[in-house]
Specification:
heterotrimer; A mainly alpha; B mainly alpha; C alpha+beta; B: mainly alpha; MetI-like fold; 68% helix; C: alpha+beta; Rossmann fold; OB fold (Dihydrolipoamide Acetyltransferase, E2P); 20 strands; 36% strand; elongated
Chain lengths: 313, 300, 362
């Protein structure tokens, strides 16, 4: 490859000489395999391998039968592909007394996810809008407390939340968990929305006020349609965050409504019975599938979400 | 113009009323949960609450017990080792990857997708995968042995002395992509002209990075540091999934200690004391940063 | 003449920073008033207070005789045009124009009628179905004006409406705004930092500095008889020449002396007695200094050309005289090389004298 391209440039060089021009002309010969490039791409490639290996191992293991796994190598591709572990993980794997597989956890997670995402984003976006456009005395103070709260370990606040939910009579219910996700999603989401709304030209807001629109009219008719990208970012953030949650799931739900992550951990780390590594990996992949799909589909927006959430703090 | 009586200034409470109403959830969360909740926990850490919170103060008893519990000491040691190493390595690896990615490489988005995807996965998934890869029988150790090196030993999850490094490997795998992304954003934020100027001046690239670019990225480094650090203190799911704190209690961490005492051992006082210590740890990280960041100037 | 907008004793401060201080302003019915000043002088703040977008710390605002100090913006009978156009990006031009009316639940046919009228006046009928992103800067600003127009209000507020446009478009729209004012005869309050806009558009100009109105008068009065040194220096480009010196008595006449050179003050219309010995600043506009012209003034001064800046229509000379550097505007046809010697004469009837201490006009 490199030789051919060198030949081409040489030919171009002859043409240039024929045209009687002194000094170098035409494209500078490019060497694809410079030392710098070998080191650069070599390092990136090795790093990429480190990041990819676990995914590969998960997939490969989940497609093998147990006898093949016992024979040996977690890295070797399956000799005989079987989807049995996937079926079992989804429909038959046991946690405690229940043996209806991860599907229960999956649907529990969906039931938790949808209202949590909707409520948390709505509350946070309205707060962010309020903070950006309708400041009142003390609003910045509350916001500062909220942001400091983002750094406080959940463990510090979790028990008061338990008590509060118990008082409200929603401890252990879906409503309770939705409230918990809304509470702990507030800091980052409010920050995200506040910064976004503050970045919109303030004259737009002024124009709408002159036009006579009030708080909610401006929110729904002017701000919301303009903020669609940031809503998508917030959704990505919340879908992956809530789906991946473990701690709140354990504390705030009862065993039969455990979310998928909790159920997965119970399946894999259960001490009873024979370890079925292929089923475990299939279950792990199934649990990771939702955030992975969100990640691969959203691409740049995902990056933007975490960067917006993180850097602007 | 006819003389009008000056209009009364409307009651301040009702100005912006809708905004105040809409902010009630935020105010409740900030003041009630984040502020009030933390204070509540701190206060009850001085009581001997067991199954239920009780207002019977016992002074620093819970803290004395805490610091004489070997499990807590191990947790703190683990957190320190994990925290320091994970800070160093994730900043180092993250910055190196970002610097490599910033060389106008081809397939940049493919590489970024690969480096970042673990961050989308939960700690539970991360912990379980690495539990499997580090399985001494079938995982890395087993394979190296089957290749002929019979005495090769690499079983971090079954060796109390190095179990925390096994967790570190998984933690780095999950988190470095984020650091890389933040660093890359920082690098991209640096004026192109800086690079042009240093090229014209004939400064080698590594020197430009070391003496010009990295100092310019100070804010990015500090923010990243704070983000990683506050994440480290919370580490819980990863340990639960990968080792359940074992072998023995060799890989316990403070967050797990708190959970176990609050919700399993029904010893709330201990849980509150331990969580107050966690809060203290975070405060030690956050306060100097907040002081540096917002100290002199007022928040905009 | 009735007053359309009157502002009494208005103050506004953000914390310790006083942006407006005890400001009084009466705007006549149908008047085109320009608030002129450099950035940070409080002119936009004042406009936002009139619009009700900022809350004053003290004082009263009346529009059409009604005290609106604490009214909502929409209830003040105003329309506003912004520098960045502030068109709602997701709505078509038509929806942009009608948004306020729809919010106020104006009947459909009334809305249509008003839009038809506004778009005819502004000639934006072909644009009605488009989104703002598909419009040019000039078209967007026209739509923004239209949005104020459909509101059928008494007072129009303009916040630097032309500053985002390029020079050519700016002068075109300037003419159009003037035409609009002639046609509608509404009260218009217009904020700008561009003195050309101010001079060309205004019935009266209010020049502002640090939250206070320095001078409020017709453009030509402001140009020819600035009340203080700040106004004199702010208006006019290139700016007025300032010569520091003192008043003296010479042969029974009062003269201005600087660096041993005397300037006769014959014809100067003084507001206060010209007592000899008083330290003053003499202000001369570049076009009020004449070169090699023996008709104007009584005495001739020798000067040397330092630098010449030909600008096409005129020619700007930078001269050394009496220890000062002066700019002089002459016709574009005459050229002078650096170092050339020439004779100056001064038209004191349009000159300005300021007290060196108080900086007020003498």
């Amino acid at each position: 490859m490199a030789n051919i391209s060198t030949l081409n440039t040489t030919a171009a060089g002859f043409d240039a000489v024929a045209a009687d021009v002194s000094g170098p002309r035409g494209r500078r010969p490019k060497r694809a395999l410079s030392r710098r490039n070998i080191i650069l791409y070599g390092t990136l490639f090795v790093a990429a391998l480190y990041y990819l290996v676990p995914l590969y191992v998960m997939v490969v293991t989940s497609l093998k039968g147990m006898p093949e796994i016992r024979m040996g190598n977690i890295f070797s591709p399956p000799m005989e592909i079987t989807f049995e572990p996937w079926v079992k993980a989804w429909g038959e794997a046991c946690t405690g007394l229940n043996c209806d597989g991860l599907s229960r956890g999956f649907w529990n997670s969906v039931r938790i996810l949808v209202p949590s995402v909707v409520v948390s984003i709505f509350v946070a976006s309205v707060s962010g809008y309020s903070l950006a456009n309708w400041r009142f005395k003390g609003s910045e103070l509350f916001f500062s407390i909220l942001i400091i709260g983002a750094f406080i370990p959940y463990q510090v606040m979790i028990y008061p939340v338990v008590i509060a939910l118990r008082e409200l009579g929603v401890y252990g219910t879906l409503t309770g968990l939705v409230i918990v996700h809304t509470i702990f999603g507030m800091p980052i989401l409010t920050l995200l929305f506040r910064n976004y709304f503050a970045s919109l030209p303030v004259e737009l807001f002024k124009a709408a006020r002159i036009d006579g629109a009030g708080f909610w009219q401006i929110y729904f008719r002017i701000m919301l349609p303009m903020a669609l990208p940031i809503f998508v970012v917030a959704m990505i953030l919340q879908v992956t965050g809530i789906w991946n949650d473990f701690l709140f799931g354990v504390i705030f739900t009862r065993p039969d409504s455990y979310p998928m992550t909790v159920q997965l951990n119970n399946i894999v780390n259960s001490v009873q019975g024979v370890k079925e590594y292929n089923v475990n990996m299939a279950a792990t992949l199934l649990t990771g599938a939702v955030p992975l799909i969100v990640y691969f589909v959203s691409g740049r927006l995902f990056v933007r979400g975490i960067a917006a959430g993180a850097v602007k703090g | 113009m006819t003389g009008h009586a000056p209009a009364k200034r409307p009651n301040q409470l009702f100005r912006n009323l809708n905004s105040k109403i809409a902010s009630i959830p935020m105010i409740l969360i900030a003041v009630g949960i984040f502020f009030g909740g933390s204070i509540w926990t701190i206060i009850y850490s001085f009581t001997n609450s067991k199954l239920l919170p009780r207002m019977s103060f016992v002074g620093l008893d819970q803290y004395e017990r805490l610091w004489s519990t070997s499990r807590w000491i191990i947790s703190i040691q683990n957190l320190a080792i994990y925290g320091i190493l994970s800070l160093i390595f994730s900043l180092l690896i993250g910055f190196m990857l970002a610097a490599l990615m910033d060389q106008k490489i081809r397939f940049e988005s493919a590489f970024r997708t690969i480096f970042l995807y673990p961050f989308a996965l939960s700690f539970i998934v991360t912990g379980l995968v690495w539990q499997w890869i580090l399985n001494p029988e079938f995982g890395v150790q087993g394979i190296v042995r089957s290749l002929g090196w019979e005495s090769f030993t690499f079983d971090p999850l079954y060796n109390p002395d190095i179990v925390i490094y096994g967790i570190l490997i998984a933690g780095l795998w999950q988190g470095t992509g984020l650091v890389m992304c933040l660093m890359l954003a920082g690098l991209r934020g640096i004026d192109e002209d800086i690079w042009k100027a240093s090229r014209v001046d004939g400064i080698p690239m590594w020197r430009t990075y070391l003496f010009i670019v990295i100092p310019m990225m100070r804010p990015v480094f500090i923010t990243t540091l704070v983000i990683i650090a506050s994440g480290i203190v919370k580490v819980y799911d990863l340990v639960v999934a990968q080792t359940s704190g074992g072998p023995g209690n060799a890989s316990e961490v403070p967050a797990k200690y708190v959970y176990d005492y609050m919700f399993q051992a029904q010893n709330l006082g201990q849980g509150f004391a331990a969580s107050t210590m966690m809060l203290l740890t975070v405060a030690i990280i956050i306060i100097p940063w907040a002081y540096l960041e917002f100290g002199g100037k007022k928040r905009g | 003449m009735t007053n359309s907008v009157s502002i009494r004793d208005l103050s506004l401060s953000f914390g310790a920073v006083k942006v407006l201080q005890n400001l009084d302003l009466e705007v006549h019915d149908g008047e085109f008033l320009v608030l002129l000043g450099s950035s940070g002088c409080g002119k936009s703040t004042l406009l936002n207070c009139i619009a009700g977008l900022l809350e004053p710390t003290g004082g009263q605002i009346f529009i059409k005789g009604k005290n609106v100090t604490w009214e909502e913006p929409k209830d003040r009978g105003i329309g506003m045009v912004f520098q960045s156009y502030a068109l709602y990006p997701q709505m078509t031009v038509e929806k942009n124009l009608s948004f306020g009316l729809r919010v106020a639940k104006v009947p459909k046919d009334d809305i249509d009628r008003r839009i038809a009228r506004a778009s005819e006046i502004l000639q934006i009928e072909p644009l009605l179905k488009r989104k703002p992103a598909e419009l040019s800067g000039g078209q967007r600003q026209r739509v923004a004006i239209g949005r104020a127009l459909v509101r059928d209000v008494d007072v129009f507020l303009f916040d630097e409406p032309l500053s985002n446009l390029d020079a050519k478009l700016r002068s075109e729209l300037r003419v159009e705004i003037k035409r609009l004012h002639h046609a509608l005869k509404n009260t218009m309050i217009y904020v700008t930092h561009d003195q050309i806009e101010a001079l060309t558009l205004a019935d009266r100009i209010a020049i502002m500095k640090s939250g206070e109105i320095q001078q409020l008068d017709e453009p030509m009065t402001i140009y020819n008889r600035p009340v203080n040194l700040f106004v004199a220096g702010f208006i006019g480009s290139p700016s007025m020449n300032f010569l520091r010196g003192e008043l003296a008595e010479e042969g029974g006449r009062t003269v201005f002396q600087t660096h041993g050179v005397s300037f006769s003050l014959d014809g100067y219309d003084a507001d206060s007695p010209l007592t000899p010995g008083r330290k003053v600043v003499l202000g001369l506009r570049p076009e009020h200094i004449h070169v090699d012209n023996h008709q104007v003034g009584s005495e001739m001064h020798d000067a040397v050309v330092d630098i010449e800046e030909p600008m096409g229509a005129d020619n700007l000379l930078w001269l050394k005289h009496a220890g000062h550097t002066m700019s002089v505007r002459i016709g574009g046809a005459k050229r002078y090389a650096p170092g050339a010697k020439l004779q100056l004469s001064f038209d004191m009837t349009v000159a300005s004298l300021f007290d060196a201490e108080t900086e007020e006009r003498v």
